[in-house]
Structures are given as C-alpha cells and as structure tokens.
Amino acid sequence: MRHVYECPMRWADMDLLGHVNNVVYVDYLQEARVDMLRTHGPAARTGELAEGVVVVRHEVTYLAPLSYRFRPVKIECWVTEVRAASFTMAYEIFQDDPEDEGGRRVYLRATTLLTPYVFATERPRRLNDVERETLRAFLEPWERAPRVPLAAGRQDALGHYPVHVRFSDVDVYGHVNNVKYFEYFQEARILLTARLWRDLPEGTPEVSMVVAQTDVDYKVPILFRAEPYDAWSWISRVGSRSATIESVICDGDTVLSQARVAIVFFDQESQRSTPPPEVYRERLLTALA
Asked: Which Pfam family, giving just one, matches this sequence (predicted)?
C-alpha cells in the first residue's frame, strides 16, 4: 500500500530560476510523511510515530524542475525497510501527465531513514508492535546499491560559513528541524561558489546551476544558541557539466551533520545541462580537495 498526499504549493517556494527550490522539496516530503503516519494504522492514534521521530539520513534525487501551479503537487510515499529501532521511507513527487511514460511526470525521488526518539531523555528507542504493524502495511522492500559514506574534508577560509540558527529554525523539541539543515548547506554552498567566481575575466557569461542529488547525514542535534556553528565546504569532484560539493557542520571538533551535493550547470533556454565556460571548471579544479 502507498499513501498519496496532495501538497499545496506556495509562490515563496520558487527560486531564481522559477523552479521549486531544492530545499523546499524536503519540506514537501516532511508534510507527506507526517500526513501518512498521522492518518493510517493503529499508531496514528498516538501520533508518536509521526512526530516522535528524528531523521538519520536523507537521500534526494532531483529529476526535473517543478514550476509553480495553482493545483497541489502529489507525493506518493511508502516504507522500504522496518528494523528494530528504525525504518526507511521512500517518496516520489509527481503530477499526473498522460504524455509521460506511466501517466505521470516525476520530479523527485527520495528516501529518509528515521528512528523513534524519546525527546525527554534525548535517546532513540525501539519500535513497538503497534508501530511495526502500521509500517508493515506500507512495506515494499527493495534492493538498494550500497551508498558511498560521507567523509570529512579540508577546512579552510574558502569554504567556511558561520551557521547562525534562527529561533524559527527550531522545532517544538528544541532541535533544529531536519529541513533547515538543507538551508544551511545551501547557504554554505552558495558562498563557496561566490568566492570561486570572484573576479572572473571581463565578459565571462554568467552561469546557472541546479542541484541533481543531495545526501545528508544527521549525527548530533543542532540547538538554538547565540554563537554560530561552523560549516565547511569543499569541492570533491569536477566533471564536464557537473561538480560535487561536500560539507560538514561542526561545533568545535564535533561533526553535527554532513552533506554531499551534486550540482549541474544548466541552460535556462533549453532546460538541459550544459558545459560551462572553461574558466568555471578551472576555478573548480583549483579548489578540488
């Protein structure tokens, strides 16, 4: 069984290219997940499975740009794995479209690894029988390729971004909401590329970039405080039309979260990937870790 949630779109969801911003998609996934777990199965009566969980990992693949429309976008979600103290959910964001294969146009596919959590004691817990019964109603196991683990990279001034937590970033449990991490990594990534593109030769055309893939690991909760945390970003791969940026958010020597983001140079006229002017690749290669 799969759950379908119709998510209303907001004009504020759009980025400079007129597409739904990559961060906003993760907010859509959260809305769909909570809707599924609050409305189905025995565990829905307590609400703990919907709200008493923390995100351990997101893996998000962006397939096509989604533009604003006055009707909701559809999100299909289901469960791919149930373990003793965690479960994995999968999602597909789409619109019905008879001209596309399968009758739908898919904009994003993603998975989220979650674990039940006791916020009073700040400790994870095991799933109970009622929760497992609820999750198994949506279970569709699949074989997945092993993921490449994220690794710490270099920390220097080029890739440093101070993460200031806003009070509105924090959820009812006092933790920064998982969606906000995507914002922090986006801000760090934008600052890194802005520094790389500084003082380009006169006449160099501007380029557009879109996010193709984002993987985020959540290790230690980020809490609200006046002092900023440190985000460090670096270039880990450079291709002919794309690059990979990896980042960490730290509190001193403690890594709080890690991310790997694949960015693609994008032609707005053709709506396809494109090789950038060589000067951009040269700047990326000079920063390659």
From this structure: 4HBT_2
Judge if 130 and 160 occupy the same domain. no
64 and 83, same domain (yes or no): yes
Chain mean pLDDT for the chain: 92
Neighbours of 138 (CB within 10 A): 21
> Per-residue pLDDT tens for 197-215?
999 999 899 999 999 999 9
- Measured CA to CA, the distance from residue 14 to residue 119 in angstroms comes to 33
Neighbours of 209 (CB within 10 A): 18
Q: Is the pLDDT of residue 152 over 70?
A: no
Q: What percent of the chain has pLDDT over 90?
A: 78
94, 118, 147 — which closes off a domain? 147
Q: Do 113 and 48 share a structural domain?
A: yes
33 and 165 assigned to the same domain: no
171 plus 235 within the same structural domain: yes
Span 76-80, average pLDDT: 97
Domain hosting residue 80, numbered range: 1-147
d(CA 213, CA 3): 24
Beta-bridged to residue 163, according to DSSP, are 229
Three-class secondary structure of residue 32 per DSSP: helix
Counting beta carbons within 10 angstroms of the beta carbon of residue 201, is it exposed (0 to 12), middle (13 to 18) or buried (19 or more)?
Answer: exposed
